Amino acid sequence: MAQLKVVSPEQYPASAAQWLAEEIQSAIAAHGSCALCLAGGNTPRAVYEALSRIDTVDWARVDILFGDERAVSPDDAESNYRMVGESLLLRLPVAPLGVHRMEAERADAERAAADYAALLPAAIDVLVLGMGTDGHTASLFPGSPALRATRLVEPATAPVAPHRRLTITPPVIAASRRVAVLVTGAGKAAMVRSVLIDPYDPERLPAQLARDATWLLDTSAAVEFTAQQVVDRRG
Ligand code: 6PG
């Protein structure tokens, strides 16, 4: 069942960052390092900035991965790598254990996907996901062939530009130890409700691949359902 953490928009960046910091440190305490896989898009930006200011995180033991990337250069305004760099990496007091950029811009997308899959751990310790208004997560869009993939990373096509993407696949999400889905704003409230309440159908609602994860929501994104409905969910 989903774990819900709902706070005001004003509290959201710091609250979500604190959750991530605690899970990162928990992984480090458990086995000496943390494989942290980050989401792109816009929602995480303020959370990553807040995370960069939390001084309890031992970044020298954190290996940073990406859940998906657009087929653009790393300095492109649409690059998830650039967003993570600006909001987190360039603000850290020390270098992380590793930063593994997803090279989605490579002409041979199949080769780029295979190369990235090869560096993924058997289990990501902390996976950060977002959700689009269409219910996609990472670059797993409704009806995407990548939703049926057995490989860990797949080329994908987004309905919105930049269209060419690389994305982690359902097996990676399923194997992750802790998963947080970051969603804010009234514009996503109806989709959050569908993902958390409707019968399981990840082909239609890919974010349901994370429906039993920890959903870090602001109050605007949580207005369309009650916690009891999540508890009572069937199917
Ligand atoms: C991406 C993200 C994607 C994102 C959602 C939500 O590359 O766009 O990985 O899955 O999390 O599209 O994006 P926003 O946070 O910008 O609404």
Describe the protein:
There is one protein chain. With 235 residues, the chain is an alpha/beta fold. Helix content is 29%, strand content 20%. It has seven helices and ten strands. It has a seven-stranded parallel β-sheet with strand order 1-10-9-6-2-3-5, with helices on one face. Helix 1 crosses helix 2 and helix 2 packs parallel to helix 3. The longest helix has 20 residues. It is globular, with a radius of gyration of 17 Å. Bound molecules: 6-phosphogluconic acid.
Query: What's the shape?
Result: globular
Mean pLDDT: 97
Order of helices and strands: EHEHEEHEHEEEHEHEH
Q: How many strands appear in the DSSP assignment?
A: 10
The proportion of residues forming helix, as a percent range, comes to: 25-40%
Structural class: alpha/beta
Query: How many strands, which pairing sense, and closed or not: the largest β-sheet?
Result: 7 strands, parallel
N-to-C span: 11 Å
Q: What is the subunit arrangement here?
A: single chain
Number of helices: 7
Strand % is 15-25%
Flag low-confidence runs: none
Q: Give the C-alpha Rg.
A: 17 Å
Strand order within the widest beta sheet: 1-10-9-6-2-3-5
Present as ligands are: 6-phosphogluconic acid
